[in-house]
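Sample entry was shown:

___
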Amino acid sequence: MKTELLAPAKDKFTAFDAINCGADAVYIGASAFGARKNASNTLEDIKEVVDYAHKFWAKVFVTMNTILTDSELEEAFLMAKELEAIGVDALIIQDMGLLEKFIQMDNEKKVSNLPQSLPQSLPLPLHMSTQCDNYLPQKIKFFNEIGVSRVVLARETSLKEIAKIHEENPNLELEGFVHGALCVSMSGQCYLSQYIGGRSANRGVCAQPCRKKYSVETDEGKVLAKDIYALCLKDFNASNLLEELRDAGVFSFKIEGRLKDSNYVKNIVAYYRQKLGKGISSGKSFYAFEPNPEKSFNRGFTEYFLKERTDCFNFDSPKSKGEYLGSVVEVKADCFKIKTNKLVNSQDGLYYNGEGCLVNRVENGYIYPNKKLNLKVNDKVFRNSDSEFEKILSKPVKRQIGINILVDRDFITVTDEDVVTVSCKFPVGEKANNPTKMQETFIKQFSKTGESDFYINDIKVTAELPFLPVSEINNLRRNLLDKLMQARLEKYNSEIKQKRGKLKYANYYLKEVDYRANVHNKYARKFYENCGVNVLETSFELNPHAGERTLMRCKHCIKYALNICKKPINLLLRDEYDNKYPLKFDCKNCQMLVMTPEK
């Protein structure tokens, strides 16, 4: 079964790089309402990405996955129509108010308050963001029943759970993360940033308090671990489990990182493209580097809970760790030496003991850093920035579609790898004085596709060619390739571009929901009510100090990490401001809860 490789894009240039390196789809933020507020893009830029992606039958998904106020909901609804008009392939959403608006639109023949230049229906597929906390099979089945096209699974979902979900919803596309940063809290269920400083993760402005230092204490004041990154996780890397994920029912393999730079995206996309093989889009990528995920930003890697509980935590540092170089064998006043088979260069970034430095120079095996180090023999040293690798990564990557050309007495026919075919009548000309030379010239000129979106697999000439000037051969090539690309785009829009079905209400799996349902507007409340649910309260963001609340719900467990899993002990986290966050442990479901601070 072919699968989709889905890549992040913070801007149009990163999107182009992701597509060129083999992504079958990219997800990108619009000017507002995305869960990464610092990765927004204009409609004009997104249109450029759409036009480029569709050449390769790659898709563009736009993130609108924040919770919305009543006024924002109207803006978001209009933006959805504008995105539909420029050819976007799907919307990634969280707010149930948008679902309510789309269902209402489906039930109306015409939406009177929309400009007439915009579509009056919304055939765009809807993907339910991981921010919806897509962990329980009952919730995913509900989304399938209301008619969405795809569900983005929670990162915590195991292979067994994915297989069960797929078995119960065989026609629903499942999207699963395979690489990148991990939120310690289940997505959509993190309120710590909102509680501390009014910066809501569900509103796209998370301050990442999970990457700060905390001390772990008992409720009696005993310090078990002082000033550690207690909530900091390693980065996800499921590259060794891709076949098992595919067998479990994952269709789309998602790389996290809408704030990552182009070099990161190019390296990781190329790596997973190689691992997955041919995807659902067209073309072949030509690049000069050998992809290696250890050379891009990472805090160490984990497979998280895909198969079983792993040591997913990184208490040492939230900074990039990178690739392991070796251990220190000698330390001098201004330099040191490590045992390694890798070449270290000036301007490389090194990581050790939670610290970092740049390499000023390397002489006779001795590394001279740009600052005084606290190193000793046997310390492990990692490289989190490989200057030579970054230079190679920064070179342009070309993606092209393979074509075959057949020339007979009457026609030139071009067929691409997707069996899209165009042809033109061969020009009438004088008999060539040297037919062999003419054929060689024709093949040479027709093979010059280097700057186009195509590369030549094969050219067959089955008839004697008349004399043609080089300029005319070049014009023939350009016109035929333009005609082929137009035929590809027409086929994409008529046959390949997915349309969503009609949305409808269904019975929700709960009868009541509280702040954890993230109801932030009247339409979201109405949606739940139409699905048989009593909404007990609005979102946490509208009432953040209403008594004891769960600020985080995590699969990561500090008791497990400190090897005190079975001990009946009450723990809390103390931050740098002496706020104390009690921890609760739901051992039956293997979850840890971070609660609001003690008063």
Notes: The two ends are 55 Å apart (CA to CA). DSSP finds 14 helices and 29 strands in the chain.
